[in-house]
């Protein structure tokens, strides 16, 4: 009997230890989180510190002003107003946030990814041509023209865009599955990094010389996804996103 009990205790302990061992690390809530040894030097714990729950108030869960359009006087002719954990502190640890996006006629939210979130978008006004590109080696473009009331999903991590193909302004609202989704705008990250990426890297990656780059299965190779999707992304989107002549975009699309 005693032997039976200690056996059960052993089984329970092994089960407990192995469940701890197989538990995964928490998802990152920001780009980097380098460990430090002194807690007093900490900036935050994967996300933000928590307020004493007894001191929470309605304002911690509130934001006002999403009825106002963002300023679209910029190269993309669009503006994203984010309502994330920086705007609503009560979103901390809840895994959700939202944005309002305004587009001038022919304005766009250029090709970008959210490293930490899936996005679900609805059109309030106007007509948007939207799409996302699957990862290598397929690089399939999944696109659609959306009208008022239509809803579309952009899966986590995939390159996607919205382009206002109507003659009037467009407005969309989107929900994102992170308190801090992050945004990587492809053209800015690749051609606008600070300091710049060695041009030899980009020359070969984007086949701006005659050499052919290799493809790596299971990853998103930026040049392939953006210029080599099947079917191709509307050249007007890439012309504006990369600030290129349409002829250059068509040349790049023929190379991938
Ligand atoms: C919150 O309030 C409750 C009830 O007044 C109290 O028991 C508890 O200790 C408080 N918690 C903190 C973190 O102060
Ligand atoms: C978006 O609009 C806001 C509010 O008008 C403005 O402060 C911000 O600079 C705009 N962003 C861009 C990229 O134009
Ligand atoms: C929008 O941004 C542009 C460029 O930054 C600026 O000149 C203009 O005054 C802004 N408009 C509003 C309404 O804030």
UniProtKB/TrEMBL annotation:
<dbReference type="InterPro" id="IPR011051">
    <property type="entry name" value="RmlC_Cupin_sf"/>
</dbReference>
<feature type="binding site">
    <location>
        <position position="114"/>
    </location>
    <ligand>
        <name>oxalate</name>
    </ligand>
</feature>
<dbReference type="GO" id="GO:0048046">
    <property type="term" value="C:apoplast"/>
</dbReference>
<dbReference type="GO" id="GO:0030145">
    <property type="term" value="F:manganese ion binding"/>
</dbReference>
<feature type="domain" description="Cupin type-1">
    <location>
        <begin position="64"/>
        <end position="214"/>
    </location>
</feature>
<keyword id="KW-0964">Secreted</keyword>
<feature type="binding site">
    <location>
        <position position="160"/>
    </location>
    <ligand>
        <name>Mn(2+)</name>
    </ligand>
</feature>
<feature type="binding site">
    <location>
        <position position="114"/>
    </location>
    <ligand>
        <name>Mn(2+)</name>
    </ligand>
</feature>
<keyword id="KW-0052">Apoplast</keyword>
<feature type="disulfide bond">
    <location>
        <begin position="33"/>
        <end position="50"/>
    </location>
</feature>
<feature type="binding site">
    <location>
        <position position="119"/>
    </location>
    <ligand>
        <name>oxalate</name>
    </ligand>
</feature>
<dbReference type="InterPro" id="IPR001929">
    <property type="entry name" value="Germin"/>
</dbReference>
<comment type="similarity">
    <text>Belongs to the germin family.</text>
</comment>
<feature type="binding site">
    <location>
        <position position="119"/>
    </location>
    <ligand>
        <name>Mn(2+)</name>
    </ligand>
</feature>
<dbReference type="InterPro" id="IPR014710">
    <property type="entry name" value="RmlC-like_jellyroll"/>
</dbReference>
<keyword id="KW-0325">Glycoprotein</keyword>
<keyword id="KW-1015">Disulfide bond</keyword>
<keyword id="KW-0732">Signal</keyword>
<dbReference type="InterPro" id="IPR019780">
    <property type="entry name" value="Germin_Mn-BS"/>
</dbReference>
<dbReference type="InterPro" id="IPR006045">
    <property type="entry name" value="Cupin_1"/>
</dbReference>
<feature type="binding site">
    <location>
        <position position="112"/>
    </location>
    <ligand>
        <name>Mn(2+)</name>
    </ligand>
</feature>
<protein>
    <recommendedName>
        <fullName>Germin-like protein</fullName>
    </recommendedName>
</protein>
<feature type="signal peptide">
    <location>
        <begin position="1"/>
        <end position="23"/>
    </location>
</feature>
<dbReference type="Pfam" id="PF00190">
    <property type="entry name" value="Cupin_1"/>
</dbReference>
<feature type="binding site">
    <location>
        <position position="109"/>
    </location>
    <ligand>
        <name>oxalate</name>
    </ligand>
</feature>
<keyword id="KW-0479">Metal-binding</keyword>
<keyword id="KW-0464">Manganese</keyword>
